[in-house]
Write a structure and sequence with these properties.
The chain has 274 residues and is an alpha/beta fold. The protein has one domain: 3-Layer(aba) Sandwich (Rossmann fold), CATH 3.40.50.970. The chain contains ten helices and seven strands. Helix 9 links the parallel strand 6 and strand 7. The protein is globular. The two termini are 34 Å apart.
Length: 274
């Protein structure tokens, strides 16, 4: 039995740390990080078969952060899950520290590839998934994409490749927070009826509230038990979710919070009382 309240508390703690480190180390892309925290927590605490002390052991599941600018969210999630010390985050970006704005291959345990250039993570995961199928290895692959990222043509080439090769060991998640760097996602490119687009490409398609922990855990369980086709989960999210004065404000794609805003955010998240 999954303790949903525990997962929700982990999300609040991770959000608080993200805001704190953004202020302390001037780390951008806070809005993009906050929108995907609940997705990451539901995966790492309830779905993924990964040992933090041996993340690449045979048979381990694999997670790829294709929206590489959300790296601080992944780094923080891995720290709270026990892959390494949370204290390491306090020196984010310092010389010799493994963290940067985007992931680097094997920079820390649990990060396999560089995903700073958008549109490559899904293809990478599909290659690994196909290899696992050929070797008859029971392994699942999860890929998190941004809604702006799926403007990239390489994503749709991969979307055609997966069903052609019956890669039912792959689940893609689209963090549909409705924004990208320069504007509303549906204004920049035609993302209306996004679920229908994926269905037309031959994917089992699910739509879910990307901030409802119970719904997320249930849809991930359901997707991993569905044979024959690759799966995609369209997670309806809010950019900068969890901090009211940041939510759905695209300025937080790059803005750095002040010390006062960190305090206010932590109060809203219930991490401090005054």
């Amino acid at each position: 039995m999954i303790d949903i309240s525990l997962l929700e508390q982990k999300s609040r703690e991770i959000r608080g740390k993200l805001v704190e480190v953004s202020n302390l180390r001037h780390v951008p892309h806070l809005g993009s990080c906050l929108s995907c925290v609940d997705i990451l927590v539901s995966l790492y605490w309830s779905i993924l078969k990964i040992d933090p002390l041996d993340p690449y052991s045979k048979g381990s599941d694999s997670f790829i952060l294709s929206k590489g600018h959300g790296a601080p969210a992944l780094f923080t999630t891995l720290a709270y899950k026990g892959f390494y010390s949370v204290e390491l985050l306090n020196d984010f970006g310092e010389e010799g520290n493994p963290f940067a704005e985007h992931p680097a291959p094997n920079c820390v345990p649990g990060v396999e590839i560089a995903t700073g250039s958008l549109g490559h993570g899904l293809s990478f995961a599909l290659g690994k998934a196909l290899a696992a199928k050929i070797k008859d290895e029971p392994q699942n692959f999860f890929v998190l994409l941004g809604d702006g990222e799926i403007n990239e043509g390489s994503v749709w080439e991969a979307a055609m490749f997966a069903p052609a090769n019956h890669l039912d060991n792959v689940t893609a998640i689209v963090d549909f927070n409705k924004w990208q760097a320069t504007g509303r996602s549906c204004d920049v490119m035609s993302l209306q009826s996004i679920a229908e687009k994926w269905k037309a490409f031959g994917w089992d398609t699910y739509e879910v509230d990307g901030h409802n922990m119970h719904e997320l855990c249930e849809v991930f369980k359901k997707s991993t038990k569905s044979p024959g086709k690759p799966k995609v989960i369209i997670a309806d999210t809010i950019k900068a979710k969890g901090v009211s004065f940041m939510e759905d404000d695209n300025n937080w794609h790059y803005r750095i919070p002040t010390a006062e805003e960190v305090l206010k955010a932590k109060q809203e998240l219930g991490l401090i009382t005054s």
